[in-house]
Structures
1.
Amino acid sequence: CIGKGGHGQTWIFGPGYLGCSLPSFSSEDVQEVVHEAVPSSTAIFLGTERLSTRVLGPEPFTACGPSEPITRRLRNILQEYGEEGDLFTEMVQNAEDASATVCRFLLDLRCCRKATSGLLDPGMAACHGPALWAYNNALFTEDDLQNITQIGAATKEGQAGRIGRFGLGFSSVYRVTDVPAVLSGETLLIFDPNGTHLGKHIPRAGSPGIRLDFSSRPRILRVFAEQFQPYHGIFGCCLPEPGPFPGSLFRLPFRTEEEAVTSQICSEAFGAERIQSLGTAFLGSNRLLLLFLKKVRELSLEMLPDTATSAEDTMPLVTLQRKEIRDLGAPGDPPSWAAIEQLSACEEESRTTWHYLVLVCQGDGELLELFHQNTQAGLHPPLPMAGVALPLAPTEDGKWVPRLDAEKGQVFCHLPMPIMSGLPIHLHGAFSILSNRKGLWGTAERGKWNQVLLHNAVPLAWLRALDHLRAMHEAEKLWYRSLELCQQHLDSHFLQFFPLMKSVLPMFQDMVREVYNSPEEDLGMLVDKNLSVPQPLVLLQVNLMSWAGTTAWAAGDKGDSAPLPCSGETPHAELSPALVSSIRRMWSESREPGWESWGCSAWRREGFRESLETFPMPKEALRELRGDLGQGPGMPGQG
C-alpha cells in the first residue's frame, strides 16, 4: 500500500519491504524510491527506482557494445536464402531432426472472417488471411522449443544425427511471413519481431514473441477462441477446443501488402499469384529431398481453396514417398546402411517412380583420425559419414539394371545442395557447408575436413556400392546384357558408373582419382565370375576411362610413369605400368582361340583395336607397344 508521511514524503509499505520518496530532489527527478528488497520488476511496474540507485546516482560507465536489432539480423539472413522455396527444405530438416516420418504442407487460401474480438491483440487480425501450414508427426521436446527461439545459436551443432547446425534454418520462414507460429502438444509459440501484431504482450524487443501453455492455462482457449479458429481441422488439430496436438504444426500467414510496407524484415508481399507459384515449383525443387534421409519417408503438398468452408475441403497436389525395396545390410558400423530405395511422386492421377542403390558408410584412416582430433579440440565436427546413390531401373523379370537416362549427379549434405558434380551418381557427405547450404567450405579447418571426406569416405562408399552390384549379379538379381556389352566395345551398363574425368567438376576430380587409384585387386572384386566378358577386359575399360580424361590410373609405381603427349582435349597424360600391362595382356588374350569361348564372337582383334581407338591414346605410347603387340594391319594408332 502507499501512504503519505511527514515532510512531503511518500511511503510505500509491503510485506518485507519499505520505501519512501525523498523531497530534496527537483520535480524533474523521480520522486518515489523503494527499498533494495523490492524486486526490480516491481519497481519498474510502480514507476520508481530502488533507494540505492537514487542515492548513488547513475552508473559511472555508460553501457555500450555490439548490438543488432533482431529485424536487421533476420533481414541479413534472408539475403543468404535466395528463394522462398528454401523454407520447404528447412522444414523437412526440422522434421528429420525431430525423428518425424511424415512432413506435410498446406497452402491455405481462405480469407477468414474479419475478427473484431477474441484475438490476443487487435494487430493479429491481419494474420487471419491466406497462410502456409507445415506439419510433421513428431512432438517437439523442450530443447526443440528453446532451439527454435534462438537465431544463429548453433544449438544442434555436435548432436549426433542432427542436420541443423547453425540455428538459421527456421529463419527462412520470414521470407513469406512476419508472424510465424508453432504448435506442438499443448504449447503454442507466436513470434512478432516487428512488434506490430503482439505489441502489448511483448515487454522487451529482445524477446519478440509469446509462449502459451494450454495445459496450465486452458482459459486462454475460451477467452481468445477467435484467435485459434483458423487451426480447427488442419491436420487433425482441434483448437480452439482443448487437447494436445499429436505432432508439430507451423502456421505462416502470408505477408500482406499492408504488412510489407511497414515490415523491417522483408518488403515482399505474397498475393494469390505468388502463392500459386510456390505450389507449381514444389515437385521440381524437392523430388530428391528424401533420398538420403533416414527418418522422413513422406512429403506432401495440399491446397485449401479460398471457397472452402472447412478444412475437409483440402485438395492434394503432390505426394512424394520413399520406400525401401530391399535391405542390402549395413556396410559397416551403425549408422551405416545400404538399400535399394524407391522414390515416387504422385500428381493428380499420374505416378512416377525412380530407384536407387543408396549406400552410406563411415570413413576410416585419416578421416577418423581428423574426426577425433577435431572432437578433442572442441570443434564439434559432423560424423565422418558419406554415401552414394546409383540410379537403377527394374526389369520385367524382377531384376535390376543401371538406369541409362539417369539425371545429372547432385551433391547432398543429407539434403540436396545446388551443386552439380558432373558424376553419373549422386553423392552425399557430412560436409562442412556454408550456413545457407549453398556451398562447401574450401579453406581452413572446415575446408580440410571436406577434402579428407572426399578423398576417404566418398570413394569407399562408391566402391562398396559397386561391390553390391557385383554381389547382386552373382545372385542373379542384376541383369547384364553381355552381348550388347561386347558389341559396344566395353561400354557396359555397369561401367557407366565410372565417369570420364573431363565431365567431372574440378573440385571432385581428385575424389574420382581416388576411386581409380584403388589397388587392382579392389577393382577386380567388382567383376564377378559370371560375367561373359573376361575380368581384364573390364579392368582395362576402367583404366582407359580414368586415363582418357586427364591422368592414367597409376595403381603401380607412379615413379615409373612418364608423361606423354596426348591427342584429344588434354595436352598431357601419364601411361602407367598398370595400364600398359592391361593392354598387353588383353591384346595377347584377344589373339587366342579361347576368346570365342567367352560368348563374345563379335569381339575379335578388330573389335579390341576399335575400342582402343575410341579413347585419346598417346601415339608415342602405342608405338612403344608395337614391339609386343605386333605390327599387323589395323594396329591401334597406326596410320
Note: Residues 1 and 13 are 5 Å apart (CA to CA).
2.
Amino acid sequence: MMRSFLLAIDAGSSSIRCTAYEYHRHHSGGGSGTHDDKTNLAPLSSSSSSSTHSPPLVTAVKGVSHAIPLEAIVPNTGHIRIHEVLAAIDNCVDETLKLLRQRMLSCDLTHSYPHQVVAIGFSTFVMNFVALDIHGDPVGEVATCSYACNRDDVVEECQRLRESLGAETLHEMYQRSGTPLHTSYALPQLRAFYGNKDNEAIAKTIDKWSTISSICLYRWSGRPQIQMPISYSEASWTGMLNFRTCSWDDQMVDLVETCDGVVQYTEDDLLVDEEYTEGVDLLPPLADFDAALPFLREGTPRYNDDGSENSYWERWPELRSYPMHLFFGVGDGAAANIGSKCSGISTSEYPVGSQRIAVTVGTSAAARVCLHLPLSLYPGVDESNITIPPGLFCYRVHRDRILLGGALTDGGSVVEWARTMLNLQSNESFDACLGQVSEAYEQERTMAGSFASMHGEVTMIPFLSGERSTGFRGGAKGCISGLTRETTPSHVMYACLESVTLRICCILQLIHELCTSQSISGQKPNQCIIVASGKALERNTLWRQMLADCSSMDVVVDDGSSEGTSRGVAMLMAASLQQSEFSDSFATFNNIDEPLNVSGIDRPSAAVSDRWKIAKLAQESLIEAIAPTWNKR
C-alpha cells in the first residue's frame, strides 16, 4: 500500500524544524493510525489515536524530524538573518527526507516500501517581511522587518503617525486590520526604512516585499515568471491587511507608497489569476494558504522558468511527483491553535458547545481563540459583524477563520529572569523556592482572606521587554513594588507567577466577553475552557491552578497535541487535501474539530476569587502610577 507523508516546516525565531507526518485519508470504515509492517512507522504519541474515534488525519512519524537552533532575528533591530534562515530551512528538509528514506527501508535494507511526499507546508514567526529584487532574491538583512522590532526610529515613526492621523482614524484602521499601531507591525517599520537616507541605495533595488515561506516556494517551484503571492495569514500579521476582506488596506498602502525613498514599479505583464488578488507596487499579491496555483501542484520541476537547472530536482527526488502540493505559510500562532485542538467551538466532547481558548506560556505568552468568520462571496465586501475590543489583535488563519487574542513578550522568561536574579540556578534551590510558593498558594486556597500574609504584599509588572497586549504602551518597563526586609525569594517568585497570570487573564477576559456577547456567524459558546500548552504551563501545576482560579475557567492539558505548531501545519494541509479529494469529508476548514485527550484538569476555586480581584486591582493601580515615568516617545 502506498503511504503518504506531509512535511511540516516550523520556522521559528529561535530554531527551524521540519517534521514528517503520515497522512491518513479518512474513509467510512474504521482503521487505525498505526501500522504493523516492518518499517516500524508509528505515531509520535500513542495517545494521539483512540479506538472510539476515527484515526487522526495526521500522525507524526517517530524520529523523522530535524531541527537547527538559529537566532533568526537580530536583537532590538527586528532585522531577519534571512540568508541563514533560508539555508536552515533547506537543510532541515534535506535531513528529514533522509530520515524518512531510512525509515521506509525494509529490515534487510534490500528495498524501500512504497511511499510518497504529497505536501509541504509552513508555519513562520510572524510578522516577517523581506525585500526582494527583480530576480526574487533578498536584497539584504537591513531590508527586512519582523515582530521583534523595538528600534528608536520605529518608535518615533509610531508617534508621528499618531499625531498626524489622530485617534479616530487609528481606531478605524484598527477595526479593519485587527492590529493597533505598534512597532511590531510593518507600517511604521516600512516608513522608517524608506525614510532613512542611509537606505536610499538599497531601496532602489527593491521590487517587492515577501515572506520567508513564499521565497522558499518561489525557489522550489522553479522561479516561475509571476509575482509569488503571500498567504492571507502572513499578510494579516503585517498589520496592513484588511482581515475582513483579505485585501491590502488602501490607506496603509498609501502611507507607505507616499514615503520619500519609495521607488515605484509598474508590472504591466503581471499575470492575473483568479486564485489571488491583484498586487500593488510594493506589496505582493495575496492568496489563501492552499491556493491551487498550477506551479504549486506540479512537483519540483527539473528546470527553472528561465531554462537554468533547478538544484532541488536532484536534491529532493521525493518532490518531483505529481501532484505534490506546496502550501503557503501560516502564522505560528494560528498553527499552534489548530495543533492544540483549539480550532473553534467544540462539537465533539469536553463539553459540546464549549469554546476552547489556547493559552501558551513558553518564553513569551499568548491567549488566542479561533472564530468562524468566512470571507464574503463578493470580493472586497465586508459582511462581518465583529468589533475588535481594544487590547486584542485579530488575524486571518485562512478564508474561513480568524484568530483573536493577545500576547505578552515576557511569559516564562519572567520566571527565568527571577531565577537568575535570585541565584536559584541550581535545580534544588529553584525547586525548593517553587515548593514554598506552592505551599503558600495552597494555604490561600484553603484559608481565604489571608492574601497579605501569604503573599508578602509584593506586586509586579512583568513588562521586562515592553508591553504588547493589552495596553500596547510604548516604552513600558517592568517593576516590583512592596519590598521590605521580610521579603523572601519565594515572595518575589510568587509575584512573578502572579503577574504573568494577571496579564494573561486581562486578555482572557476580553476574549470571553467577545465570544459570549457577540454572535459571530451565528455562533455562541455555552462556556469557555482553556487548553494549556507550552513547557512552562505543561510542567508547572501551580501555574495552571493560578490560571484557573484567576480566570474562573477550567484549564485542560491535552495529551495528544505535542509540538502543536508543527502539528497545526500538518492538520491544515491534511484538511485541505481531504477537502479536495472527498467533497463530503468532515475535514473542512469550517470545523477541524478533534476530541481532547485530557490528561489533567485544573478547576477554579471560588474561595480565592476575591484574592485575585485584589491582586488585579493592585497591579493595575501600580501600572497607572508608574506609566508616566516610561519613555513616551
Note: Confidence is low (pLDDT under 50) at residues 27-52, 265-280.
